């Protein structure tokens, strides 16, 4: 075994522990964990999902045996209404948590009459609050706005035949434009009632009796059962552990087959995606995969299951639809023409992530020129000669359709971030000129952005554009989460500026349900009350990489994920929160949105500290954040093409820190451990102390919580490290 100290860079070299004998220094080996974590999994255990209960407070009218649909099968549930003097019989069924798929109902018969069949109506909702007599969202809502497609499917009706049969919620109508069902739903609650609307005459009758013997859901999305997990996470805080699995479940609910009859009807259907598995933005809407959302959702997918096709299919399809000027569509919606300014840059970041997590270099080789054309043509040509920064002048939107123009911090920091990601890939491929050009352009953007948009009066970045209704180049006095967070991750700022902007931002925007995405309402009413878990991920990541800021990350995580997990529908994470933490776009809001699952990469990449530094984890770093929060231990694994990377760390009662790692043979990387001041003999690796290293302790690549870290080079295999109190 060789341990060497390279002052100022790498403090020690750690090779596989074979042949290393150190009898004197014993330590307890940590467990990488058994199957305890299975209890946190939210997925149904099979693809037929039964409801859990009915909301008894919501049963109205003549309903016999409302609980017949749950637990052990008894006699059917019967809805009866003799005439207009009777209340409408209705019941509300609760699936216990958000689910997605196609509902079917077994009818045990119904009375009929010469006037027609009994009418049954259904309405779905993710929340009780937005459960009414129309679904909180259906694809037919968008059909009103669509140029093509039927304009008929306002809500869901069934004409119940009088013999036993199974009805399935396939999209379509029982008669021309009448008695229609609207297909797949993401929902938790289902309201069922006996009624008819005049528009369906003469096919349904609002009176009579309907018997239901069974209701179930055919799960349509990725079924994330225990055997599908290639990565997992567990820590001493059970809430945080549960949120990690809730995040995975949220992304799983959006991982599904792209089908014309189930996607957003606004010209999203496309033959090049039809039948392919994709990662959608939301389980109930828009069911069109958007590339910016993948900036978070794809990481969740890689870190939990070995299913990268759902991401690769999207990246490939959007690349194939690149516009001649280099712009890449954000999604297939509007026949690939939805004008977003930031999403092409997310395509680049996501493509580099795909390579790093899955090792799919052939994909990146195939689309390398797509990336280059977007960076150099589309954005490169927009760097104005005066400022050398992106100056947005067109009417394009972004992840939140923000009314922005001018030299915006977010777009420029994202450009620097995308350039740096692309330079990493150029390096892998040996494209030295690109690597140098993109690295130096990123650094130039960073310097100019800092010079132009840094607000020294508060120590954070301005958003950068003029205030609405105040045209001209005067910078509006408003600061945003997106630009400030990305500026930290893109290296626009040094550590003291990062500490300053995070401190300012946290103080000014903290709400009980997360940090708002703007610090005031200068751009639009309500912005200072709106929270996007999506961009909060980047703010939280910035806190985890900034010295001394990890504590504020844990505190924000508890507000953000704590809020969503304790408010209806619980379990899944929401697209956005508005005033008082409510869904920001009411019933339209998706309550299971993959972009809000940042808790998964935050815990796996920062708290376990596992990150790829080369394609497919050929090289890696393990730099856990252990201080700042209340955690006393964490463990888990990340799946890689060569096998799992496992980490287990613990702070012992006596102050000793112990870390066990296991990485695939044939890989190599670096491990960072806190030195606790680094006294001689304190850091013990595979039973052997590191000696006379007090000068060599360095701050690692992911310097965390202000501690000094020793950075150790390691070969693949099993290693045990401990640091004395
Ligand atoms: C701890 O783990 C190492 C590496 O797997 C192994 O060689 C050693 O025997 C273990 N020690 C104990 C006390 O179990
Ligand atoms: C369910 O019952 C509650 C309590 O009575 C009521 O506030 C709510 O409006 C009802 N919801 C529906 C969909 O009927
Ligand atoms: C009503 O039921 C009778 C017998 O049960 C059947 O002959 C008739 O076709 C039914 N009417 C309709 C509209 O289904
Ligand atoms: C829904 O219910 C409201 C009031 O309860 C009623 O005014 C409205 O007409 C109903 N809409 C439909 C489509 O049934
Ligand atoms: C959409 O079409 C597919 C393939 O034809 C079918 O399997 C699926 O059930 C349909 N979905 C709905 C909601 O009707
Ligand atoms: C979508 O755009 C392509 C290319 O511009 C065109 O060929 C195609 O007809 C369009 N499809 C629809 C449904 O408008
Ligand atoms: C951005 O471009 C617009 C339109 O060309 C121009 O009016 C404005 O002065 C530019 N802003 C800066 C800061 O260069
Ligand atoms: C960061 O940059 C500012 C402005 O140039 C400088 O005053 C400060 O000392 C720098 N901090 C660090 C840690 O380099
Ligand atoms: C946002 C923006 O200013 N886009 C411009 C970038 O450059 C191209 C080519 O000059 C213009 O067509 C875009 O409008």
Helical coverage, percent range: 25-40%
Principal-axes shape call: globular
CATH H-level name of the domain at 48-219... which superfamily? Galactose-binding domain-like
Number of strands: 29
- CATH first level of the domain at 48-219: Mainly Beta
Rounded Rg:
28 Å
How many angstroms separate the termini? 25 Å
User: And the CATH topology of the domain at 48-219?
Assistant: Jelly Rolls
- Give the class from helix and strand content and strand pairing: alpha+beta
Strand content: 15-25%
Assembly status: single chain
Number of helices: 15
- Ions, cofactors and other bound molecules: 2-acetamido-2-deoxy-beta-D-glucopyranose
Largest sheet: 11 strands, mixed
CATH A-level architecture of the domain at 48-219: Sandwich
Which whole number gives the mean pLDDT?
90
Point out poorly predicted stretches: 1-25, 145-151, 692-706
GO biological process, one term: carbohydrate metabolic process
Pfam family, one: Bac_rhamnosid_C
Keywords: Signal
GO molecular function, one term: catalytic activity
Could you characterize the architecture of this molecule?
By secondary structure, this protein is an alpha+beta fold. Among the domains are: 142 residues, Maltose phosphorylase, domain 3, CATH 2.60.420.10; 172 residues, Jelly Rolls, CATH 2.60.120.260; 136 residues, no CATH class. Helices cover 26% and strands 22% of the residues. It is built from 15 helices and 29 strands. The strands form 6 sheets. Strands 2, 3, 4, 5, 6, 7, 8, 9, 12, 13 and 14 form an 11-stranded mixed beta sheet that branches. A hairpin with a 6-residue loop joins strand 22 and strand 23. The longest helix has 22 residues. It binds 2-acetamido-2-deoxy-beta-D-glucopyranose (9 copies). The site of one 2-acetamido-2-deoxy-beta-D-glucopyranose has 8 residues, from loops. One 2-acetamido-2-deoxy-beta-D-glucopyranose binds next to loops.
